[in-house]
């Protein structure tokens, strides 16, 4: 899970300078709530 957390932190930090960052972050949150089965 550490790698996933680092990825999320990277996306949130990147989102501050790029509008696409927020879109990617929201997309990640939606996918995280769904079961990966």
UniProtKB/TrEMBL annotation:
It comes from the Bacteria. This is Uncharacterized protein. It comes from Desulfosporosinus metallidurans.
